[in-house]
Amino acid sequence: MRVDELAPSRGSKKKAKRVGRGIGGKGGKTAGRGTKGQYARNTVKRGFEGGQMPLKQRVPKLKGFNNPFRVEFYAVNLDVIEALGLSEVDPKILVDRSAAHKGTLIKVLGRGKITKAVKVSAHAVSETAEKAIIAAGGSVTIVPMPHKGVRPAAKGSQFTNR
Predict the structure, then answer these.
(1) What is the rounded distance in angstroms from the CA atom of residue 149 to the CA atom of residue 137?
(2) pLDDT, tens digit, 9 for 90 and up, residues 63-120
(3) CB 120 within 8 A of CB 84
(4) Using CA atoms, how far apart are residues 94 and 96, in angstroms rounded to an integer?
(5) Among residues of the chain, what percentage have pLDDT more than 90?
(6) Phi, psi angles (nearest 5°) of residue 80
(7) pTM of the full predicted structure?
(8) pLDDT higher at 139 or 61
């Protein structure tokens, strides 16, 4: 058998039915479309939903995209840590001193200067902040995230997440 000899089995492929070719025979006159109306007249646009706002026009109105797996940090800068005047700082101390909100993940950022050695524990630390803390004689410890690998509960509807 050669490639040019390949063909479907005899009788497995039917010819398309030609409709709308006069009154006699099957598929004549209305050609299986019933009588009258827009569906009989070949005027229905693709995606037409009977006057309802079509999906292709509704969807873009959901502005943007909100990643349900996003991890949000509460930013604490070096100037805030300096103002606290402590030798050791961790998430619990920051919450107790009203420098951060309870139950949030804390990231130390590099705005401001730090003059004395501070032992900092946080969920994340920026490179600039880490360099500044170490240069002042302090140390940085990364605290493990409490819900690592667990999807946080979605806020709002599953589409807008607002």
Answers:
(1) 34
(2) 777 787 888 899 999 999 999 989 999 999 999 999 999 888 999 999 999 999 999 9
(3) no
(4) 5
(5) 42
(6) -70, -45
(7) 0.53
(8) 139
For the chain, give the DSSP string: --GGG--PPTTSSPPPP---S-SSSTT-TTTTS-SSSTTTTT-PPTT--TTSPPHHHHGGGS-S---TT---EEEEEHHHHHHHT-SEE-HHHHHHTTSS-TT-EEEEE--S---S--EEEESEE-HHHHHHHHHTT-EEEEPPPTTTTSPPPPPS-TTT--
Tokens of 47: 């995606």
Q: Which long-range contacts (CB under 8 A, 24 or more apart) does 81-86 make?
A: 81/108, 81/114, 81/118, 81/120, 82/112, 82/113, 82/114, 82/115, 86/118
The token duo for 16 is 């398309």
Kindly report the backbone phi and psi dihedral angles of residue 69, in degrees, each rounded to the nearest multiple of 5, phi listed first.
Answer: -100, 5
Q: Which amino acid type is present at position 26? A: K
